[in-house]
Write a structure and sequence with these properties.
single chain; six-stranded parallel β-sheet; UDP N-Acetylglucosamine Acyltransferase, domain 1; mainly beta; 22 strands; eight-stranded mixed β-sheet; 198 residues
Amino acid sequence: MKQQVYRFVRGMGCLAHYARWSWRFGKFGFRSRLVDPAMLTGCRGIEIGKGVSIRQGARIEVVADDGKIEIGDGTSIQLGFHCGAAKHVRIGRDVLIAGRVYISDHDHVFHHGELPPRRCKELVVAPVHIGDGVWLGEGCVVLKGVSIGRRSVVGANAVVTRSVPDGCVVGGVPARIIRRIEFDEPMPASLRLTENFT
């Protein structure tokens, strides 16, 4: 009986979240939850898959008319998440994102001859891709033009400035490979690591 009541209450909660948010976003999957966001900008360019959990304080911003943020099915995002897209940020399925993580596909121009960054409207933009099953540790930063490969792990407070292959643990500022992950089952040949990344 307890299980049935729990499932009913949870189901009603999912319906409430869907009713509250689905009309606002480009896509908002069923069984997804978005709790007390701090800021939402350009919602029509944001697509959230099924079964996604986004905790309090999220700041999710599409800052250009053709910008897009995609968050894949089953992804879990903790407190204080900040994501900004001027072009495209794609977060894969079943990604685990700890608190205070920052992801952005753009930078402000800071070397303009006359205008300081605050007043200069130009941006430097390059898409970001976070692969399926990635774990982004507490307080890490993922900058423009970066791809993080499937099932990789980014350590706490790391700053990722260049792409990471599949199945790696990276950490530091700037982030570098600490070790390769030994999976219980072999990865498919198409996902095996290259050896020329240092």
